[in-house]
Structure formats: C-alpha cells, structure tokens
Amino acid sequence: MDNEQYKKQFLAEAREYLQVLNNALLDFEQDTSSEETLAEMFRAAHSLKGMSSTMGYEQLSKLTHRLENYFDQLRNGSLKMDSSLSDLFFEALDLLEELLMKVDNPQETEALTAKLLQRFAAWDQAQGQEIKSSSTSEHPSEYLSVPDGEWILEIKLRQGVQMKSVRAFMVMQKVNQIAELVATIPSRKAIDDERFDREFSLILAGEFSHEELIKTVEGISEIEKATIRPYHDSASEETEGASAQKNGAGSKGEGTRLAAAERYQESTVRVETTKLDNLVNLIGELVINRNRLLELARGKLGDELDEVLEQQDRYISALQEEVMELRTVPVKEIFNRFPRIIRDFNRSQEEKEIRLKMVGEETELDREIMYELAEPLVHLIRNACDHGLESKSRRTELGKEPVGSIKLEARREGSNVVISVADDGRGLDPEQIAQTALQKGLIELPELEKMNDTEKLNLIFCRGFSTAEKITDISGRGVGMDVVKQKIEQLRGKVEIESKINQGTVFRLYVPLTLAIIKAQLVKAHSQVYAIPLESIKENIYLEDYNIKEIRQGRVLTLRYELIPLLDLGRALGYQSSATKKSGPAVIVEGGGRKAALVVDQLLEQQEIVIKSFNSTLLKCREFSGATIMGDGRISPIIDVIGILQ
Amino acid sequence: MNVAEQENASIGKLIIFSVSGEDFAVDIFKVCEVITLQEITHLPRAPEFVEGIINLRGEIIPVICLRKRFGLPPLEEKKDVRIIIVEINKHKVGLIVDAVKEVFDSNKSQIQPPPPKLAGVRLDLIIGVGRNKERLFVLLDLEKVLSTDEKIALEELKVER
After folding, report:
1. pTM for the structure as a whole
2. What's CA A611's distance to the chain center, in Å?
3. Which residues of A touch B54 (CB under 8 A)?
4. Residue B108: is its pLDDT beyond 90?
5. Which residues of chain A make contact with B60, given a CB cutoff of 8 A?
6. What is the Cα–Cα distance from A531 to A156, expressed in whole angstroms?
7. Closest B-chain CA to A575
8. Is the Cβ–Cβ distance between B18 and B99 less than 8 Å?
9. What is the CATH number that goes with domain B10-160?
10. ipTM above 0.85, yes or no
11. What domains are there in chain A, each with its CATH number?
12. 3-state secondary structure of A488
C-alpha cells in the first residue's frame, strides 16, 4: 500500500470518528450523566488523535488533543456540560471536518487551526478558566493510555493442549463480544502460528463486567486460568519482560511490544468504492456473456454440457447477488446527519421543539441510490421542521404534546426499500392545496373537480408549487417538492403522501434495492430492440382485444373502465411511422403519474439486463435512461418511461 | 485548453485526419484508439450530428459524425472511414472521420496560433495551425467543437486562404 492509499484510508476513518463523536455528543447532550457516552467520545477523540499524529497531521492531532482535554475535564467533574460547551464541541467537529477536507493545503489548515484554537481560547476565557493545555501536552503519555479503559487479560491454557491457536482464536472471539480487543501479546500472527507456550495476553478496552468476562473465558474448554488487571503504559515494560520470558526463547524479542502488536482484525475490510464498481461492472459483463452463451448453446449441446452450463448459470446468478450486496450500505450513513440537523434547528429558535426518532437504520441500500436520496430526505425533514410541525404554544392549544415528533423509518419491502418521513404536525389540507394549485395556474378547474384527495395532495409535487409562508434557513433553499419527486423517479422509485389534518403527514419514498441490473421486457419497434424496465410495466396486451377510440388528442383504449392513451413507440422516439396500427402488441406502462399503451412491433422475451449509462449531456435523450448490451453484442436502449410519457 | 496551456502540456504527437478534403489534428493523448466503422445504434432524438451509440467492448460510447457536425453530406465511399475514440471531460466519444492519415510528430514551434485577422474563421474552435509537409492542418479544440450546439461550417475552420 502506498502513502496515497494510507491517506485515503486515514481520511475515511477520521471521518468515521468525527461521525461517532457527533453522534455521541448528541447523546451526551441528552444525558450528561452517561459515563459510557463520555468514554465513547473520549475513545474516538483519542483514536483520532493517535491516527493523525501517526500520519504526521500535527495540527489535527493538536486540536483533537484539546477536545480530549475537555472530555477529560468533563469526566473528572472539573467541567460541567452545558449548551455553550456543546456548541463549542459541535463547532469544533465541523471545523475538524473542514480541516480533513483541506488537510493537504498548509495555508488552509493553518487558518482553520488558528480559528479553532481561537474559538477554544475564547470559550475558556468566557468561562474564566485556564485550561492547562500547555502543561498537559508536555505529558502526552498521560493521555496515550485511557486511564480506566484498558485492561490486560492473561490466559493460561491447560498442559498438553492441542491446537493452541484455535483455542486462542475462540477466546478472542468470545472476548471481542464483550470488550474491545485492542492488541495481543504476543502478536496476532505469533498466536496464529502457535509461537507461544501456554500463556498469552489480550489488551482490552471499554467498559465491561470483569466477572462475566472471566466466566466466559474460563467456560471455554482447555483454559486453565484467566486473570484480568488494569493495563498501564508504565506497566508495559514489566508486561513486556514477563511475556517475553513466558514465550520462551523461540519468540524472544519478537512481536511482544504493544506498539508492534498487531491490532485485532475486525471482521470487515475497507475496499475502495472504485474497486467495487469495477467488480459490479465485471459481473455485468459476465451476465451478458452468460446470456449470449445460453442463446448460442440452446438445444445444440448434449445433456451433459447442458447440465454444466445450467450449473454455471446458477453460480453466476449467486455471484451476481453477492456482488450486488457488496454495493449496499446501511441507511444509517445518511440517517446519521439528521440528529444534528434537528439539534441545530431546536437550538436556533424558541417557538418549536422537535424530537427525531429513527427506525431501521440498519436497512441496506445500494450505495449510489443512498447517495442520491440524501438531498430529498434533507428536504423532507426540513419541510417537516418548518412547515409540518406547529409551534409549542399552538400544539398546546390543540391539546397535543408540545414537543413535535418526526419519525424517520427505513424498511425493506420486496425488491424495494421504503423510507418514510412522518411528522405529527398540522397535516396537509387537500382543498387548500387544490386552491393554491388553481391560483398558480398549475391546474384547470374541470380537471380539479375530478380529483380525489390523494390526487389533490399530489399536486404539491407540481413544478412551481410551494406553500411556504415564510422562508427560513432550514427550508426554502430553492429545492421544491418537484425536485424531490423527480430525484426519486430518476432512481426508478416513487413517492407517496398520506396526511390527516392536525394529525400529521407521512411521505413514503419507494426506491429499488439496486440500480445496476434490472428485469426488463424487450420489445422491437422500427427494427430496433428496446428494453422497458419491468417495474414500469403494468401488463402486455393485444390491441385487437380492445376497443380503440379516436379522440381529439389521439387514440385511446378502454382498459377496465380506464381510458388509456395509445402511444406508438417508434413515433414517440422520433421516427416517422407510416401506418397507424389497429392490431398487434402493446405494453401498458406507468410512470410519473401517467399511463399509456406503448404500441410496439413485436414483444420479445423478458430478461435481466445490465444498465449502462451513457453520456447524456451530449446525447440529450430524455426518452432513454441508458442502454444495455444484448447477448449478441448489439445495443438496446432502455426506455425511460417517465421521460417518454412527458 | 487555450494556446498557453497547450504549450505547457507539451504538444507531442498528433493524429492527423481528414474531413471533406481538409486536414485536422488532435492531440494523441486525447485519443484512446482508432477503430473501423461498426454497427451504430441510432438515437432519433439526439442532436443531429450524433450518429448514435456503439458498443466498444462493453462500454457504450456516443459517436459523432464530423461531416454532419460541419453540415456536410455523408460520404459515399466508406472504405477509409474510421472512428477515432477520444476522451473529453472523462467521457469517451467517437468521432467519425473520412480517413485517418498519419501520426505526426510535432514540436511546439511547428504549431502556431491561427492568424487572428482571418475573417469568417471560428478562432475559438482552433488551438493552432501546423504544417505537415506541404499541407496545413488545424488543431481542433474538441471540447468546444462538441460542447456547443451552434452550427459549425467547415468553411469557418479553413485557415488557408
């Protein structure tokens, strides 16, 4: 691994620590008595500091050290948590994040560091307290060991035990469920290679029940004895000497120093996203190739070869599924930012107070989709804060709990993930929305009269609709609900609203689990094969079975009491089509709230296709969402149903 | 890229191609490969000069016909027609040209900025002008040629008067 890669890894991890700090701080704000949360903050700051100085980012390390000092003072009671302190912390975290982004620009980092140090100094002064930062930093070793956090667990195996490394591994597995395994003595590798006698030690961090730990460890067979005692840096020399002795001559001077001890490897690894994307692309190619092979081989091979082919087909499908899973990440990654938004909102004004509840943060979703969802979600949450929820006094008048609530929930539903944003605020009034839409000329009266309440609610997704009475810095940033809807539909998803006056509003976002491979119906029109995503298809029909009427706007057919406009696919794509067809196949599609019967020349098979995007800025084709490569190497453009119906 | 930047970026090898009897050049560092004409999937609603998309070993690449880009009729004899795959703004694009002539080893002094007083010449689309044996060629600013929707006539790129 070269430096650049180390740096990337460092940045990713550092960001994670900042996120941990952010979350822990939010928790700590709620419950300032929680020593556990404080310990978590301390640990995160400590790790970040260590990493930064290892990487040579002294400023980052210095600043985190200051944070650690504050946390330490909180812990020993010389400092009390209050809102001014938490503001200071949050500001510090924001600045640190900025610093991370500009870590290679000395001027910027210098400026940011100065800014933050100044901020710390100002706060100290305001508090009338002198932080002995200079004196503490002279003794960094004091901070390098987490005073009440690290323990050494010494384990002795029975005489004549077989497969020592397996026993050790079992111990580590069990221990890791209870405490955080920091390091091993001798090194992990030495243990794996059985280069130890009967004894080995584990350095542990975190708070856990010692009794439980000892009981668990001694419960493993072939363990003679387990003892635990606090682990200090000052004691490390002794430990070092002792363990080196115990390990016997074979491992003398090897891997016994804590610094050299390998960190316990977690069960996850960090992989660059580009590598994942490459893997997904390769699988895509493999799927295409498989389809081609199946096509070529159909009926031409003997039973035995057919069987092998079939088996390979299954393996590829399984592989594809696994790889697609790799692309997924828990929605937590975007949910994480919302507690902070709500906190800042609550701090920024007096009239409202909001509590955020999050459910299903572990639900997994395609990384790319999730990335695209962040903006619409922020918008929905901000809308709920600003417009959905009432002020405390208003809520009391209505007999509601003064604190408003927003519930953010994610769950899996078939091949979709549903993310809902629910508030218990004033709700949306369909009549009022209808009136606004009418006033703004977004809809005509006759059309409006035919609408039911749900359809009226959906008018808020029209471009140019906004019920905002006042614009605050939380919402009103120029993104309207139309953008939310558009974004979701681009992801081949949909949005639903449910609202009851004075009870609240729920927005549900349905998005597919994955973007890269979809099921599609292949059709032929104007001697070209096109792919239509199955999610957009209601059903396939034959025109001759239906009664087709000519109306002013074109042709329509009646399908179960519903009038559906006919759209010739070739013509919709811009070709001059000669005759108007009265018979033949058509595909009923739905997208963006519209339906149509796409008249095609021929219905082909349905199959899994790999979506390949193309340079849309150059091609300016909104009727296609990409293209796919067929088994024979030819290209089939993928119809963007929403685009084609507009 | 303007002339100054181009100088810094070291003009080395160029690929010279012809469209309707005129010679043009493109920096070889922007060229991924040159392929023969192959099956093109037409996209009817795309801009007129976009011929369609091709499958280049699993990658889908838009293809632009430079003749159409310059408002010229298509070539009848397609024997020498090639697609030059270039990378512009991290996107690959194919350029259909009448023929690819040669790789030209140039040095900075051989590429001159276009004479500024030529009437009717789109100087904004031209990085420079060079001479290959007795023939002049125009080093095109491909980014600009492909990003603008305006009509470009071949006449506007002729610097030989």
Report:
1. 0.54
2. 22
3. 635
4. no
5. 612-614, 626-627, 629, 635
6. 65
7. B44
8. yes
9. 2.40.50.180
10. no
11. 3-127 (1.20.120.160), 143-259 (3.30.70.1110), 274-329 (1.10.287.560), 331-512 (3.30.565.10), 517-645 (2.30.30.40)
12. helix
